[in-house]
Design brief:
alpha+beta, transcription, Putative HTH-type transcriptional regulator YdeP, 3-stranded antiparallel beta sheet
Length: about 110
């Protein structure tokens, strides 16, 4: 984990989940463990390289765990840690805010 965290708590949170893909990965993993291919399919336009990079960063930050099975073909599964699951209220608030914003925009 990164011990050189910014002094501002908002900046700390943004450093961990400020990327669009990371928030969507968390959204998907809140439903449970997912394989790499499932995440890639769910995220749509993300490249394999960007997904791999984001998953590694999230693993290094302690937001998720990666389990590799010694099989052919290789199987890798990703699961949120307790810290990762603790972001659920933030994502729930984002859902609520987004729904309200969509209603405002549709009413114009």
């Amino acid at each position: 984990m990164n011990k050189n965290l910014p002094p501002c708590p908002v900046e700390v949170t943004l450093s961990l989940i400020g990327d669009r893909w990371k928030v969507l990965i968390i959204r998907d993993l809140l439903e449970g463990t997912k394989r790499f291919g499932e995440l890639k399919k769910s995220l749509g336009t993300i490249t394999q390289k960007v997904l791999t990079s984001n998953l590694r960063a999230m693993e290094n930050s302690g937001l998720l765990t990666r389990k590799v099975y010694a099989e052919v073909p290789p199987r890798v599964e990703y699961t949120l840690t307790e810290t990762g699951y603790s972001l659920k209220p933030i994502l729930d608030s984002m859902v609520e805010w987004g729904e309200n914003y969509k209603k405002i925009c549709e009413g114009q």
